[in-house]
Please model this.
Amino acid sequence: MDDPAAPYTREQGREFKRHKNLSSKSHGDSDIFLDVNQESYASLYQLLLVSLQCRDFLEVIKSDQDKKYRLTETLTKTCQDYSNVAMLSPKAKSYRNIKDSGTTIASTIVTAMRTLGIADLPPTMETGRCAVLAKVIGKALTDQRHHIKCQIFLTLAVNLEKDKEKVDIAKLTRLCIGTSSAKATAGLYQRIAFMREVAVEYKKGGGSATGKAGDDSKDDFWPVVDAKLLVLAQVTPEQRQLHFDMIYRDDLKKYGAVDNTIPVTPVKDLDAWLVSMNTAMSK
Model:
């Protein structure tokens, strides 16, 4: 192959390639080129190998950058807030990932964030960086589930005969919301009342509120909640609403009337992004 303008055989091309340090993917691509370009010039093949080497170098650099990739502080806080809001959506169809659904709660949140134009999100083709994003959201979801569960179970420990120790649904909802951007709505009151009813049954069955924040892998409370939501998803919207109404009224009888000093946000006054998150969580 002394003459770069001369045609080359497949064997000559492969011999020349042995002096190059290529990835297995680039080796395969160069062989494909040899198979379909038997009459090409040696110089063209040499240029191809250089290009493949550059691609390999860039992929190594990208992989190294992905390993060091961290979300910006602002994006991290945004992910946490969106995750908290998702877990406090009165429209959520589940609180854990549904097996074989093809989507996860984290991916639902990311899709909503992209639709709303949140800045600094890694492009979808940046799989390594998107995995970091999903991990941050996943941890935030776990932490929020733990927080909500703890707040609910704390209210079950009180003596219901002593009015001063009761935590009505308005106060409990505010405790669950904490510092997140979620808003107390009539729908959220009913959803929290539903969770508390499940917690009562769960505790009677021997379930516990113990568990570490950040690790709910052994917590079977939320699968019980999801199982009940799945049953409710099979009935008509009217029947489902009647069920939530009944649980809500029962909660008022047990834990006291709603504290009217705590403001309730009408659905029509919710910020657009909160409405979008509710819609996303309902699908």
Q: What stands out?
A: Residues 10-68 form one domain. Residues 46 and 102 are 44 Å apart (CA to CA). The chain has two domains: 10-68, 73-281.
